[in-house]
Amino acid sequence: MAAQRSWGSDDQLGALNLSTPETVLRALATPRTGRVFSIAHKIGRESPVQDRKHPTWHTTTVREAKSGCVAADDLLIMHSHSGTHIDALSHYWRGDTLYNGWPSGAITNEGAPHLSIDRVSGFVLRCLLLDLSDVCPTGKAGHGFEITLDHIEEAVARTGSSIEAGDAILLRTGWVAQYAVDKATYNWGEPGIGIDVAEFLAEQGVVLIGADNWGVEAVPPATKGEGLIVHRAMLNRFGVYLLENLELEELATDAGPGAYLLVVAPLRIRGGVGSPVNPLVMT
Amino acid sequence: MAAQRSWGSDDQLGALNLSTPETVLRALATPRTGRVFSIAHKIGRESPVQDRKHPTWHTTTVREAKSGCVAADDLLIMHSHSGTHIDALSHYWRGDTLYNGWPSGAITNEGAPHLSIDRVSGFVLRCLLLDLSDVCPTGKAGHGFEITLDHIEEAVARTGSSIEAGDAILLRTGWVAQYAVDKATYNWGEPGIGIDVAEFLAEQGVVLIGADNWGVEAVPPATKGEGLIVHRAMLNRFGVYLLENLELEELATDAGPGAYLLVVAPLRIRGGVGSPVNPLVMT
Amino acid sequence: MAAQRSWGSDDQLGALNLSTPETVLRALATPRTGRVFSIAHKIGRESPVQDRKHPTWHTTTVREAKSGCVAADDLLIMHSHSGTHIDALSHYWRGDTLYNGWPSGAITNEGAPHLSIDRVSGFVLRCLLLDLSDVCPTGKAGHGFEITLDHIEEAVARTGSSIEAGDAILLRTGWVAQYAVDKATYNWGEPGIGIDVAEFLAEQGVVLIGADNWGVEAVPPATKGEGLIVHRAMLNRFGVYLLENLELEELATDAGPGAYLLVVAPLRIRGGVGSPVNPLVMT
Amino acid sequence: MAAQRSWGSDDQLGALNLSTPETVLRALATPRTGRVFSIAHKIGRESPVQDRKHPTWHTTTVREAKSGCVAADDLLIMHSHSGTHIDALSHYWRGDTLYNGWPSGAITNEGAPHLSIDRVSGFVLRCLLLDLSDVCPTGKAGHGFEITLDHIEEAVARTGSSIEAGDAILLRTGWVAQYAVDKATYNWGEPGIGIDVAEFLAEQGVVLIGADNWGVEAVPPATKGEGLIVHRAMLNRFGVYLLENLELEELATDAGPGAYLLVVAPLRIRGGVGSPVNPLVMT
């Protein structure tokens, strides 16, 4: 088991501690073109959601005042873990403890008292966009396909940069295209990283790993009966955040592999175990 | 009636067109300290919401798999226009047309086909934090209090900078404190800007105006029977976005008036007329 | 156009006025066996719902008190017009007026000020169960199939009774079986009654017509471009209520055609245009 | 501890087993006037709900088809245990077992696999309306006030009938009026029955106990630290159903104490631990 950092017994932020005023300023200085990319799916009935969850419910309402003025509003009903979203460190576990020893049993239907998403102000990170779409198979062949350390190293090299502490990693697997083809195939498995790549990235000081699939990691995992092992390692041991169901096609096409600025601003849901987000990448 | 810019008959972005790669790069270069502030209220039952709306509903759920692993999720039910949120250009109107002549009648319970919030990738803007908390009355005396152009000019001067095209303006009125004291007083009126300040800011090329009250503008407005006149002018004529229910206390206390970087990433709700947001300010 | 009864310019109950203390007592005296049948589908993600609507969302929550006692609750998110439900007289229309001249334009996102379902205390009616499952085609051949007056007369004869003012009619078409086979075929059309049967039943003084399909009437209707013509005639002209997506298999198998007691107790949704229901038949 | 009936180790209906074809026919023969009373509150934002729950959310939507026809629908978001509702036998407990030994641990956010409300077709019962509004104090003096066996016997005598196996009991405490005066006082306590009356009623073979307060029983209960002891006794030991937040004023005023027909048709929520209902009383 890989070594992991610690920020004290009260810590609830995990690897986000690696993001400092210095790394923020460095991240802000990264962009060269001034272009702004949203890497989120649109939110609505068709936004990606796992089979056993509910499609997002969006209804727009209007109210007309005596003045004849009309105010429109939206009623939004959704899982925090649907469409493009971030996992809080309290999202997934096995056993009695979460990250840094916080008790899993304290989570109730009213929310997570520890490690909730509202403890995060926001992520302002340098990110490396790694393009693995050429190595990840499509269709059912993609299920369980594991991106290797060699793949990662090659992909990093193509960015013209290297991983530094405080960075985010964005993985383009190309799996997103599967959602339009066949939702069942998209949902029941996926190509992604395995435990060795995940631990490698965490050891490099990565704060967040995002991908254009629903769970970042290879599913089904190589090891059976252990659940989503990358989730467990990242969220429970390393305090690394996961960013899922990204839409990276436009960014990858227009900007390609490289080092950019990533800003993720989760909704500050009190006690939330995650949040829908609209991550922005500035190139 | 003040002159307004135009970006063609098909335009649906309004003043966001004033945000260019150049203004983005300038905005990114603004921060000096590398500190990141969230200026959003927490989201939950207690987040600010107008009287006739519903409190936000948040329920955390868990699902245990055969492996013993547990996945937690949140069920979120909310108005897009509750808590800290942004108004899309399709949020408010009187009569048949919205900004740039788009028909208000095309908005249905399924959403807005034009000027919807999902058309915006995100806002990466330089912002000026103006502190008007010393001039705005508290309690019921605050209802209808109008911030003047003189107040604005003095507040801008205290930032050590000046308004430039492509900027955002953040107004601290101090009204936010009223919510904890008495929700009715908070909701039934507020101090804010009037039509002259709003038009002045729009003419300067401001993209977005935010405030720590629920509606940016003085309510009740000076002119009766015309609804929210600043909303109408900004959203329908100038295409300027409004950012409401901000929580500016920490930023104002720690950083004070000044020019900073503001990033707002609305959820890309398809056909949405607004979005809850977690705006970030980097100082 | 068939003649229709009237109960005054203020009336909002329509044909329910035909249910009187006398018909209630007669209905209560109908059962012979004392058996109670629910003719509703179970409510949940799989309950029948039209394609463009959302599946019902049901989440059970628990809260543990200091005493160690646990209270469970359900969070229910649903369309009133999903699964087994009743149409209020304000559910469907064309043009400016609803039943008895009430204005359709008064319906807003806050509800229907007139003809809403909460105006009904409940339905306690004698019902005739008519079995048309032998004459209605299955699969796509069922789309638009119209049950004729002859079919109805034969089916009534098999009940051993005759239609009386104040009665309800329950139509078994067998279409319900299609939902399990192919939801698209179920939803895009159905066998049912046409305008002549509907008007005949209304003229007989029927209060309510129910069926084991989603819309009671033959869809697509014989006449094009007029929408659901039976809905319009029953709800807007005759004030006859429609009860949809019934589950009549058990009742039909165990009790067969006959005259029974029907009790329908819509939720008293203030301003609601319909309600999910669990209609009970006592044989 | 009072003796209790048993209907086998697989039983999930509890005291509803005491409702037989014979008691149903007897109940149906009870009404003399043919009048139908709804004893439910209207459902909407103002319907009674405990402090820590959410107000009911009701939005009416419309959809216009090409034909110009408009279909209205309602979006309903609510707790099953809000307003007038019935408790399933799986609603409340302490420890590992529910009624008849079913495991409480099997209840998840997806519902109750045992003792859920969808197992009930419906209740068709003779009911005795007992009027205790003259003995129950109003205001805060009502908190914890316990209706005694003597009160019950006197109230039964005033119905001109006596309790029989298979009956329902409806208790008018008058507490409902408190909701309009002061929700906090209404919610934080109430007059009601204690454990001795509850056990007495259960031993008489009562299937269901309803009241015009939020919990049927005296709150706070005489015994501290044991939670809602009448709930536990009725739901967990005797399998007696509880019907809460009734609106009995009209029935009590127009019909007074007596024996009537009660029909309760819970929505068949799959795995639901309760349901909103519109109970009907026929006098």
TrEMBL record, chains A, B, C, D:
Pfam families per record: Cyclase (PF04199)
GO biological process: L-tryptophan catabolic process to kynurenine
Gene Ontology MF, one: arylformamidase activity
InterPro entries per the UniProt record, alphabetical: KFase/CYL, KFase_sf
Protein known as: Cyclase
